Amino acid sequence: MRKKLKIIFIVISVLFISVSLFFGAFLGVETFKGLTNFTPRKATIENISKYKKEYEKFAENKDVEEVKIKSSKFDHEIPAIFIKNKNSDKICIMVHGMGASKYSMYNQGQIFYDLGYSLLIYDQRNSGYNKAKYSTFGVLESFDTLDCLNYARENINSKAKLVLFGESLGGATSLIAASRDKTNIDYLVLDCPVSDSNEFSDKVFEKVEKEENIPGQLMKFTGNICLKLKLGFTLKDINTIKWIKNAKLDMPILIINSDSDKITPKYMGEDIYRAIDSKNKEIYTAKGYDHTKFAQENPKAYKKVLAEFFEKYK
């Protein structure tokens, strides 16, 4: 009898462990899919139709060239636009936010162009026409940024002053890129940057936990395992502040945020500002503008902020 009970116990234990492992693996894979595809690439392409006319108006009468930059770390190409500003020795490399594309940067692009900059604007991975799989909150995207900076230096103008500009999640990408390698960055400008992408993922975990009764911590645990095994990083690495604190960012840095921003509240820019261990940093808080709308709604004031920053650190 005892022998039979022991066998039954072992069978039940094995079944329980097997079911738990299967559920954990399934949950990890599903969490991984959700984390790395917040906005599907197809949706970012569809979004282009919403602002394509504005981009075409911006590009009209400008020297625009579509280029493809080979990724040095992965096997994809980075689609980009190079807009040449006649007789310019300055280039702004522009990094868009989540759900956007290289065609969405026309508001800030026009302002930088008016300030005398040529523009190199590219599609982040899994966005627009960049076919690299997985969105990673700037972690892997940062390698594309470094490739674009290197392209500008080696293929456009080896002596040009290079400005790296990041909008929203593109700000996180830019900061991680600068933390990896600051060699080709003369100035860093961040518009409504994300300080810690965990704030976004945690909200999703909380929502799923509430609606599906799946513990958020379990989703994070299993998702982290898949992220580490598949892509080599965990959710700890999508905290931009962590990267900043482990780097020496000594190039002039300008952070622009807004007191009315509900997506990246002004404390995010303030957290980034405090984390940067440098005297060459400025922060400007605009009044009354929604997320990244300052340049669109008041380009004259936006241009003045940029011009004064570049003049101070020329």
Automatic annotation (TrEMBL):
Name under which the protein is recorded: Alpha/beta hydrolase
* Matches recorded under Pfam families: Abhydrolase_1
Q: Locate the transmembrane regions by residue number.
A: 7-29
Classification from the root reads: Bacteria, Bacillati, Bacillota, Tissierellia, Tissierellales
**Keywords recorded for this protein, A-Z:** Hydrolase, Membrane, Transmembrane, Transmembrane helix
Which GO MF terms does the UniProt record name? hydrolase activity
Q: Does the keyword Isomerase apply?
A: no
Q: Which InterPro entries match?
A: AB_hydrolase_1, AB_hydrolase_fold, DNA-binding_regulatory
| PANTHER family reported for this sequence | ALPHA/BETA-HYDROLASE (PTHR43358), ALPHA_BETA HYDROLASE FOLD-1 DOMAIN-CONTAINING PROTEIN (PTHR43358:SF4)
What residue stretches are annotated with the AB hydrolase-1 domain?
A: 93-201
